[in-house]
Fold:
Amino acid sequence: MQDWSKDYMFGYQFLNGCNPVMIRKCMEIPDKFPVTHEMVKGFLKKGVTLQEELMAGNIYIVDYEILNGVPASSDQVYLTAPLCLLYKNRLDQIVPIAIQLSQNPGEKSPIFLPSDNEYDWMLAKMWVKSADFIVHQLVTHLLRTHLISEVFDIAMYRQLPAVHPVYKLLKPHVRFTPAINAAARGNLINDDGIITMISSLSGDGMAEVIKRGMETLSYESLCFPADIDARGMKDTPKYYYRDDGMMIWDAIHNFVSAVVKIYYDSDETVQRDEEIQGFVEDCHSGMKKSQIKCVLSLFPDSLKTREELIKYLTSVIFISSAQHAAVNFGQFDWYGWIPNSPSTMRKPPPEQKGKVDMKYIMESLPDRVCSSKALGTVWTLSQFETNELFLGTYPEMCFTEQPVKEAIKTFYKELEEVTNIIKRRNEGLALPYCYLSPDKIPNSVAI
Structure:
């Protein structure tokens, strides 16, 4: 509430807020976003050109093209597909330097700058965060954790017998997921659901956004290190989501590797396991049966080696535990102050500069009824279960073999060390990042 309108806080949230997966390094300004050096030179390091900063890797971009052309649910709410250019300044802060509120540049789609008047710039940032709210809820959160986890869950129950070691490995990570997703379909994302009430989208609009999200979905984009690399974010400073996520990924990978190598002594044993091959094929088919064009050619329908199996299972566990925690449990923190991330907008985006005042901004923000529903929703979604089971805990202990029990103990110890590393890091931060601390990561998608 104190710092939400400051540019550094706006930029920080693309790294460590609810939706830390949209930002990517920008090496070339896209034609649809004609930002020039003359526009932004006052916000760059003195004596350095925009092109030089692009080549140095100091420019970032967030693009909500996925919302382009999606109709709003009524003529009383509005939706747009903005672009935002950000800059890593000398303080290693990521700050916005240009915003365009549509995918079509032109006279009616000006590029807003930090040097514009206070209200123009404030409203432009609100529009970006409103688009981010919708993409976060429907794609980053719903599709890429809840719905993807359900594909793995159902395939596991259909293809793997309860005595299979991979069934035992995955069982804690599918707890309550089909049930919570059924509740979401009935209460959140249907035509009369809460997301329809608080956002600018109808049920059909939500389906269209999720469909577009599927079109960009690939197996590699679900693997945490590959996604970081693909977005050019390996060296971005103060990206705690990346730092903590990589430690969690490595811990899960080490654990899965130990378990897999106990039961599979060669690549050939993986290839001969008809049940595990059936599981992978069923996951592939689960994507295909959505009748949506996704990148199926990049989503495996079989596994040939132990390393492929280890990577696959690491991804399944990471998505259902760490990834969901990262994008779910901060919702009240970041969405609890409505101007920071409006769930909808009641006025059209400005087509000229200098026409906005505080009255227009207040009339653009959600009204009290909508805001109260949004607050109640994000508060509920940010709560842990009463008897939550956190990553590394296996109370049922399905495994009986001593080597696996030892692997579980080692996994738990490694997670404890990660927790301590994060705690020590956070002691020196004005704003701690806790969403990927292992003691706050539930085993499964259960809320």
